[in-house]
Design a protein that fits this description.
Distance between the termini: 161 Å
Helix content: over 70%
Membrane topology: Single-pass membrane protein
Structural class: mainly alpha
Protein name: ATP synthase subunit b
Pfam families: ATP-synt_B
Function: Component of the F(0) channel, it forms part of the peripheral stalk, linking F(1) to F(0). The b'-subunit is a diverged and duplicated form of b found in plants and photosynthetic bacteria.
Order of helices and strands: HH
Number of strands: 0
Number of helices: 2
Family: Belongs to the ATPase B chain family.
Length: 164
């Protein structure tokens, strides 16, 4: 039971050693420990401040990135819209040019047909006139006394004539 009831001398020396240890720590080590703790506290505070600044900067960068993405999408959409409009405009211009060209070709063909028609009619008239003159010439050369013989002669000439 001696361990449960310490002697007063042991208590005195323990208090002396503890007091001298506290005095030595307070005199030489207490300032360094407090300074180290304050420095550590300052480092922790600056790290927390830097983390908060970094978090705010990251949020700002994120919002800036979202704004840039939105602007890029708008620009992409406008470029696509302009390209579609240009494509449609080029297609409509090509169609109108094709219609104009086909109308011109048709008009030229109509004019050519009309000219050919006029030329053919003129050629037929010339041939008819030539044939008429030849028939009249032959009738004049041959003097026929009666009307019946003249009609038969004209009928023969008409059947002999080549109508090309």
């Amino acid at each position: 039971m001696e361990l449960l009831n310490p002697s007063p001398g042991l208590l005195f020396w323990q208090l002396v050693v503890f007091g001298s240890l506290v005095f030595l720590l307070w005199k030489f080590a207490w300032k360094g420990i407090i300074a180290g703790l304050k420095e550590r506290e300052g480092d922790i505070e600056s790290a927390l401040r830097m983390a908060e600044e970094t978090r705010a900067e990251m949020a700002k960068l994120k919002s800036d990135n979202e704004t840039l993405v939105a602007e890029a999408r708008k620009e992409r959409d406008s470029i696509i819209k302009e390209a579609k409009e240009a494509s449609e405009r080029m297609i409509s211009e090509a169609k109108s040019q094709a219609v104009t060209a086909s109308n011109k070709v048709m008009e030229d063909a109509r004019e050519a047909l009309a000219q050919e028609r006029v030329a053919m009619i003129s050629q037929v008239k010339k041939e008819v006139a030539t044939l008429s003159i030849e028939i009249a010439e032959k009738v004049m050369r041959k003097e026929l006394s009666d009307k019946k013989s003249q009609q038969t002669f004209v009928s023969e000439l008409i059947s002999d004539a080549k109508l090309n």
